[in-house]
C-alpha cells in the first residue's frame, strides 16, 4: 500500500490501514487451504537461514512444518531446510528414487542410496 497521489500520509496512518491476519476482511483462519499456510510461512519467515540438516546456504531454502500442519506457523514448528533435505524429511525422496528405479533403472536418481 503506497501513498495516495497528492495526499500526504504519516507512516503511523499507513500502518493503521494495513489489515493482516484476523483483521483482514477475507481471513479464513484454519479453514484456509494447505497452500495458503505455506504462503503465510514464506511471508512470515522471509529471512531464510542455512539448512538445519546439511548447512547449505547457497541453495533454495524451504520452510518445513515439523507437525505437518501448514497452518501452524509457530516458530517452534518451522525448520529451514534445503530442497533435498526437505524431501528426505517428508519422505518424498524415497518415493522419487523408487519411481526413478521403475522408469529408468540406469538413471542417476535410481543409483542414490
Report the total helices. 4
Distance, first to last CA: 49 Å
**How many domains is the backbone divided into?**
1
Counting helices, strands and paired strands, the structural category is alpha+beta
Order of helices and strands: HHEEHH
Percent helix = 25-40%
| Strand proportion | 5-15%
* Low-pLDDT stretches: none
What does the main sheet amount to? 2 strands, antiparallel
Question: For the largest beta sheet, what order do the strands appear in spatially?
Answer: 1-2
What's the total count of β strands?
Answer: 2
Q: What is the global morphology?
A: elongated
Report Rg: 20 Å
- The whole-number mean of residue pLDDT values reads 77
Question: What is this structure, in a nutshell?
Answer:
With 113 residues, the protein is of the alpha+beta class.
Keywords:
single chain, 113 residues, alpha+beta, two-stranded antiparallel sheet, 2 strands, 34% helix, elongated
Structure overview:
The protein is 34% helix and 9% strand. It has 113 residues and is of the alpha+beta class. It has one domain (11-111). The chain has a two-stranded antiparallel sheet.
Chain-wise SSE layout:
Elements: H1 11-17, H2 34-44, E1 61-65, E2 78-82, H3 83-90, H4 92-103
Antiparallel strand pairs: 1-2
Amino acid at each position: 500500500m503506497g501513498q495516495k497521489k497528492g495526499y500526504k500520509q504519516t507512516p503511523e496512518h499507513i500502518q493503521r490501514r494495513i489489515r493482516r491476519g484476523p483483521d483482514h476482511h477475507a481471513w479464513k483462519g484454519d479453514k484456509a487451504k494447505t497452500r495458503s499456510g505455506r504462503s503465510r510461512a514464506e511471508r512470515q519467515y522471509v529471512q531464510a537461514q542455512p539448512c538445519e540438516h546439511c548447512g547449505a546456504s547457497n541453495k533454495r531454502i524451504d520452510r518445513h512444518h515439523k507437525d505437518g500442519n501448514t497452518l501452524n506457523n509457530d516458530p517452534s514448528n518451522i525448520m529451514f531446510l534445503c530442497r533435498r533435505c526437505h524431501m528426505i524429511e517428508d519422505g518424498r525422496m524415497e518415493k522419487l528414487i523408487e519411481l526413478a528405479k521403475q522408469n529408468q533403472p540406469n538413471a542417476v536418481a535410481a543409483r542414490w542410496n
